[in-house]
Amino acid sequence: METTKCLIIGSGPAGYTAAIYASRANLSPVLYEGEQPGGQLTITTEIENFPGYPDGVDGYEMMEQLRRQAARFGADMRQGKVTSIDLSHRPFVATIDDGASTIAAEAVIVATGASARYLGLEDETKFRGRGVSACATCDGFFYRGKVVAVVGGGDTACEEASYLSNLASKVYMIVRKDYLRASKVMQKRVFDTPNIEVLFNTNTVGLFGSQGVEGAHLVRYKGTPQEEMFDIAIDGFFLAIGHKPNTEFLDGQLELDGSGYIVTKGVGQATSVEGVFAAGDVADPHYRQAITAAGMGCKAALDVERFLLASSDGH
Known about the structure:
The chain is an alpha/beta fold and 315 residues long. The protein has seven helices and 17 strands. It has two domains: 2-115 and 243-312, FAD/NAD(P)-binding domain (3-Layer(bba) Sandwich); 118-239, FAD/NAD(P)-binding domain (3-Layer(bba) Sandwich).
C-alpha cells in the first residue's frame, strides 16, 4: 500500500496552504482535491478582501496561484475524493473514490470545507456568482446602493441583513415562518434598521433576470386560501440558511460540535484523534473567510510537523 507522512484531504485556501507549509517542511504531502478542486472560492467572481491583491483577484485565479505555489515546493496534488478513512489506528488508511485506491498516512489534515445550504431552486445554480451568494461579508461590497434580499430567519440571516443594510439601499428578509428564530438582540437590531423589510410567511419560488439577478418570484401564505404570488425587484440574493460541513466520509470518528463542525483542541488544529488535524471551514462555524482558512492550514501543517517529530522521538 502507498504511504505518506502527511495526507491532506481537500483543497481551497486551507488545503493548499497546508500543502505549501508541509512541503517546505520536507513532509512530501499528498493532497486529494475532492469534488471541487480549489473549493468554494473557484465559483466566486472577484475577491477584494484578501491581503496582497490591491486590485482584487478572481477566485479561480487565486486558487490556481495557491495550487502552483504548493506544487513548486513539491506537494503531490491529485484529483480524486477521499470517500472513507479508518482513524482507529496509525497509520490511518484512506480510501479514494470508493475503492479505486488506498493510501496510508502517519498524519492527516482534513480541509474539506463546508457547503452552503441552498433552497434547491434551479435559478440558484443559474445565477450563482451573478447575483446569488451565500456570503454577505464576501460579496456585499458589490451591492453598495443596490437592493438585495436575504433568505432565512435565524441569527445568521439577521447578521447578514444587518451587515448588508450598511451597504445596500434596501434589504428584504424573506422568512418562511411568521416569526424570526434569531435571538431577541438580533431581532431588535433588524426591526430597528429602517432599510430592512421583513417579509414573513414568504417563500422564494424563483429568480429572474437576463445577465444577472433582477428580481425574485415569491409566494406568501403558501398552500393556504390566502396564498398570494408577487415579485420583488432585487440586484442580489443572499442565502443565510446555514452551512453543512463536509464530514460525512469521517463516519463519526472525530468529535463534532452540535452543527457538525470538527472540534479542534486548544490553540492549534488538533482534533479528538491524535495525529488528525482540521483546517478551514470544516472546523470554523464563525468566520468562514479565505484568510482565516489559509491561517488554519498553516497552523495544521506546523502542528503535523511537530507531531511527527515528537512521534519519531518516541514521545
